[in-house]
Specification:
- There is one protein chain.
- By secondary structure, the protein is α+β, with helices and mostly antiparallel strands.
- The protein is about 25% helix and about 40% strand.
- The protein contains five helices and eleven strands; from the N terminus they run ααββββββααββαβββ.
- Strands 6-5-4-3-2-1-11-10-9-8-7 form an eleven-stranded antiparallel sheet.
- The longest helix has 19 residues.
């Protein structure tokens, strides 16, 4: 090894040691973020959601509780009206305030399937699963982080522009979905009591 290479290696080692000594946080990786999010499972979280659209006269706000299981995500809306949405592996089920039911098979609506998978995996903390459909770019560290998701496939990109996840430690706090038609949904999550 030449003297110049030895000096560069020594400087790199010294900088790495100095950063560790003063507690400089390192950039978060997808496996680290997944471990953080799954370390404290939160099967139920309260949510408030704001949907903005060029086709709406004003933003629409809803609230309720999300219930996550490995097989499904159930969104129980309490305001502005009671309704339940179940995102399963193969379909979306809707239950109205009067108990009426409807379902959409994901085989008939692939873009809706990707959006439902996004919600299920994000709330359950399965960031690695999101990498199948999205390029994931992380910023921040284990204390405060954000993840920018951009669709991998042209089909998904026809419907979704981007997704942003924001959180602190092992808690996903905000999920922002920006669609190609100018629609945007911002969901804020809080642990249920």
């Amino acid at each position: 090894m030449s003297p110049a290479m030895m000096r560069r290696a020594a400087v790199a080692l010294l900088l790495a040691w100095a950063g560790a000594a003063v507690g400089v946080a390192h950039a978060l990786t997808v496996p680290e973020l997944q471990r953080l999010l799954q370390a404290r499972p939160r099967p139920a979280v309260a949510f408030q959601e704001v949907r903005e659209s060029p086709w709406l006269a004003a933003p629409v706000t809803s609230s309720g509780t999300l219930h996550a299981t490995p097989q499904a995500l159930e969104k129980r809306v309490t305001s502005p009206r009671r309704e339940t949405w179940r995102m399963l592996a193969d379909r979306l089920e809707w239950i109205g305030p009067d108990g009426s039911r409807k379902q959409i098979l994901f085989s008939q609506a692939p873009a809706l399937a990707a959006l439902a998978d996004l919600m299920r995996h994000a709330v359950s903390g399965d960031i690695a699963a999101l990498e199948r459909d999205f390029k994931v770019q992380l910023q921040g560290d284990a204390h405060v982080w954000s993840a920018q998701l951009t669709p991998r496939s042209a089909e998904l990109a026809r419907h979704l522009d981007s997704v942003e996840l924001q959180g602190s430690g092992g808690a996903l706090q905000v999920l922002i979905v920006s669609e190609r038609q100018g629609e945007r949904t911002t969901t804020r999550l809080q642990p249920s009591n």
